[in-house]
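# step 3/5: fold
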Amino acid sequence: MTIAHERTIKRLAAKFAPSDRYANFGHFLESITVHGIRGIVGLAVEFKFPVSVISGPNGSGKSTIAHAALCVQKQEIEGRKTFNLNHFFLQSNIDQNLIELNASIYSLFTWDEEPSPRYSRLYRNIDRWRGYEKRIDKGIVYIGLLVYLPKVERRDLSVNARTRLRPGTRTPIEDGARLHINRILGLNATAIDIQNLRDSSRQIDVFCVSRGGSTAYSESNMGLGEGRVIKMVTEIEAAPPKSMIVIDEPEIALHEGAQAKLAHYLADAADRLGHQFILTSHSHALIGELPSEALIYIERRGNRVVSVEGATYREAKALLSSSNTENMIWVEDPVSKAILENLLRRIDPSLLKSTKVCVVEGGASAIRAAMKSLQKLGIVRTAVLDADQKESDELGIICLPGSHSPEEEIFASAAVIQLLQDEYALSEESLDVIKLSKNSHSWFYDIAEECAELIDNITHKSITTYVKAIPDGALAEFAQKLRVQLSKTEN
């Protein structure tokens, strides 16, 4: 995070205090509970920050929550439609039983006239939804997946009739919006205009970008990422203050740097304009620029969908990776990963083939936090931490053999010391000097430099030698604990 972005996040958190929430954000949607739609039963989601990100595996229900949020308020922006549940949740001859007879959506809003929030309810009655008449007014902007398609794919009037269309009025977008677009995309656009094109009976508006000099182009020569950001920012800046803006996967077609800058912009827009943002996203780059309060992780577990709110970026990254492989073991770093893979090979080679060892960014603390979140979801996973950490049978955490960090264990091994002496003439005294460094993570680099060897070779030889020399008793004890924990993940 940049210093300016950190300050924005702190301001937003202060503005979001319960006593100031209505003044800064109006009728803020604080929570929504969805029941009986697309297999979701009583899923309650709280929005704890002005910019909220719903994340989780594909098919978990992210869009269901976001689209439901669009329908619990009445549109107050002139010329825009109010969304009803039938816009998003469709039943047909091939889509049956996706909406139960007792389906309902409860929502909780910040309210101005009462000290406590106000509830509203939409509910299914026979074949139609009821409760629409009690919805509150709010500016609503929906930026869906198809809000922008490149002209060459859409093949609309501006492409099909391009030789017959005449330029009409050309309206520049506001400088503020242009500067935001430039920052997100790294452009140097000197002007971004809305150009009207028309023939005798039809007309269409297109974006045009000028980069100074003779470099100018319209949407017909614009990529998806650029066009979508221009459309997104202009929609957000034009919305009335304190609107609710729902965006499906804002990271589409953007590189990671632009995704992070987009997160900065959304936080800034919430700060300046009082908007509430609800996003669906898989983007680690975007999530990582927002506080833990912003993240809502959901996952479909059997016949139910469950949520974890307030996960950190690193926890979310681990949780998202956990959905991909049942037989997964989390470790702290690449050295731990190499040790465990060699241990699995020695214990039972078939274990190595059936198990994925995954490094979790953030180390032991991130793993423990993620394991707690998984526990709330009813998901059982296995983590193997370094030997200097504490085991937890409750969380499914065991430790590598030994009692010290991996580097300390490896370079205290008589077999490894002998290896370095025999192959590289590295004396035990020289090794002890290197080990005086308090940063044990640097030992592999220092030893490789002293031995004039590639670090990958030193790492591989040292780890394989160390694992082979672990006593049978210690190996058997570790293998038993690992098998017990892995058996829990299979149940």
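# step 4/5: annotate
The mean pLDDT is 90.
# step 5/5: archive (pending)
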